[in-house]
Amino acid sequence: MALTLVLGNKNYSSWSMRPWILMHHFGLKFEELVIPLYQADSAEMLRRYSPSLKVPVLIDDELSIWESMAICEYVNDNYLQDKALPNGREARALCRAYCHEMHAGFGAIRSAMPMNCRARRTLPVSAAVQPEVERIDALWHKARRRYREHGDYLFGSFSMADALFAPIVMRFQTYDVPVSQTSADYMTTMLANASVVSWYEDACKESAEIAIAEVGEPR
Ligand SMILES: N[C@@H](CCC(=O)N[C@@H](CS)C(=O)NCC(=O)O)C(=O)O
């Protein structure tokens, strides 16, 4: 096995964070290659490693897999013995629905609140962002209520859904977005997760700044 995960800046690259957290949480051994984005040579580096010219990309010997969801599913199928999905028909289906809703949606949050792990900012929640925050709060609340007897993550044990929502937790922390107590407790669980802590510490060590991702007022 020779797995390499090609990533963007840990401070900013939310799509990179998802498979990294999943693989790291489950103790998979892999190399990391970070391509600092929005630099003079970023396009050249992306061309070298990524068929889609985006990160993340997982390289498994001769195979390159792009798209964060495809990478998560690939490692779950081939390296995690299905541990990244919960047991049971209902939980598996809901977990996948959560992942795909996250992957396909929440465009207003993604554009108004760039992931910026190390920053602490204030930013008014706009009319476009508010319903998306409420939807995420409702999703987290519903899963935590339904699966709380099985553990502290969305579906009890840590799953792909937690990896997919990890960058939202970082954003809500950065921009101090108000959520329900149940969701705040879930954020506390995620922010204490050893892999999330490790990603955050790496992000804080990076010095590159991406101007378009620096929004809001310092707090
Ligand atoms: N749908 C893709 C999105 C990947 C994506 O947009 N990645 C960003 C970084 S977070 C990127 O590579 N940006 C570089 C660029 O567009 O030049 C996925 O899920 O992996």
Overview of the structural elements:
By secondary structure, this protein is an alpha+beta fold. It has two domains: 3-82, 3-Layer(aba) Sandwich (Glutaredoxin); 89-201, Up-down Bundle (Glutathione S-transferase Yfyf (Class Pi), Chain A, domain 2), CATH 1.20.1050. Helix content is 51%, strand content 10%. It has nine helices and six strands; from the N terminus they run E-H-E-H-E-E-H-H-H-E-H-H-H-H-E. It has helices spanning 14-25, 42-49, 68-78, 89-104, 107-112, 129-147, 160-174, 181-192, 194-205; strands spanning 3-7, 31-34, 57-60, 63-66, 121-122, 217-218. The strands form two sheets. Strands 2-1-3-4 form a four-stranded mixed β-sheet, with helices on one face. It has a two-stranded antiparallel sheet with strand order 5-6. Strand 3 (57-60) and strand 4 (63-66) form a beta hairpin. Helix 1 (14-25) crosses helix 7 (160-174) and helix 1 crosses helix 9 (194-205). The longest helix is centred in the middle third of the chain and has 19 residues, at 129-147. The mean pLDDT is 97. Glutathione (GSH) binds next to helix 1. The site of glutathione has 11 residues, from helix 1.
What's the shape?
globular
Which residues form runs of ≥5 with pLDDT under 50? none
Query: Could you tell me which ligands this complex binds, including any ions or cofactors?
Result: glutathione
Radius of gyration: 17 Å
Mean pLDDT: 97
Please bin the fraction of helical residues: 40-55%
Going by CATH, the architecture of the largest domain would be Up-down Bundle
Strand content: 5-15%
Largest sheet: 4 strands, mixed
Element order: H for helix, E for strand: EHEHEEHHHEHHHHE
* DSSP helical segment count: 9
CATH topology of the largest domain: Glutathione S-transferase Yfyf (Class Pi), Chain A, domain 2
Distance between the termini: 45 Å
Give me the count of strands. Answer: 6
How many structural units, i.e. domains? 2
